[in-house]
Write a structure and sequence with these properties.
Number of strands: 12
Largest sheet: 12 strands, antiparallel, barrel
Radius of gyration: 25 Å
Number of helices: 7
Structural class: alpha+beta
Distance between the termini: 34 Å
Length: 390
Amino acid sequence: RMAEHTWELREMYSDYFFLDENCSYNILFLLEVARPGVSLTGGYGGWVIPLDTLKDVIDQNLVADSSFRPSPARKIESAARVLSPEAIRMAKELSEPQADTSAISKYDLPPEQKALALEVAADFTQRDYLNHKIELGAYKKKLFELTTQRSRLGRVEEKREADPIPMAPQLAHDSARVKIGWGNEGGEGFGEISLRSAYHDLSDPSAGFPEGAQIQFPWITGRYRAREREAKIQEIGVLDILSISAIGEFFTPISWRVKTGAARRLVAGSGSELAPYFEGGGGAALGFSRERGLLWVMTEGRLYREGDGGFRAGFGGEVGFLFNESPSLKTVALARGLYYPDFKENPDLELGAVQSLTLSRNLGASLSFLRKGQVGLFSNETLFSLSYFF
């Protein structure tokens, strides 16, 4: 029934909106046709998150079973951990579109290394086809040549490391989050509450999410200072996307971030103000300890609006560190500096770390420290928080 309805829609056009009427949401209409009586499209507000639609489909008993199938890129990086440098060179050369796959005799390698290198080259060819880098005809021809050469080696004992199966994404924490914290800044105590509509940041429980991935929108954070008996908005976030991808033997992805909103800044002689900003940057990352850790370096730029209506642009960089000590314990640390060329103010400096503990699927705790400097003024901040996801 679903296939028949899809065929009926073949000439129809559907509007696409990233936040709500996206691909994941439109698939729900097809599932409602396939299973009459099931309501999947009516329970969403201003945005639709693909992971939430997956959870709803499972809750409606539309999924009998699920299994993990690694992507070609994941299989390639897993094999790279046991390939010798010469075998890696062989795999890279044979994966080139015009490579002569019959000339494998020139590589002085054990049969098991040759076999795995050929399999990696085949996985690379499949990935290139899926990414529309080669045509179907060239893909079939190349894949046939590689698999033929692999079959001629016969059955060999491959020393491929077992790749750990990640937790299924539908078992990850829910999308919305409320965070309540108690902290101290410069000897003054404060209480903090933050509400985020979606989705995940680096300090949240990692299970079910790619390590190094962060996307948040929108969120608001407020603080109440006991000494001043005053409540203020600390930050209003619109969008925050961070992608930290480790460079490997076969891939060199760019790590990047984009963030916009309004955050409270120190102002010389007059306390602080809520300043709108936009920032972005890019760089590179390295992975270590079998994907348990990441170390990255980025160059960044930032534009913010001052209280008098003017704009200030700065540039600089950051160094970040992430390490999962255990499935429930994680550390994230960051050092950052932004320089403003007009010399009217000192650089923005930040040095911070967060230790987070997963208490359950939808409950976490964290302890953070932040030392920051703005307009020549420095402050130290510690904060203990409890996070609940719903």
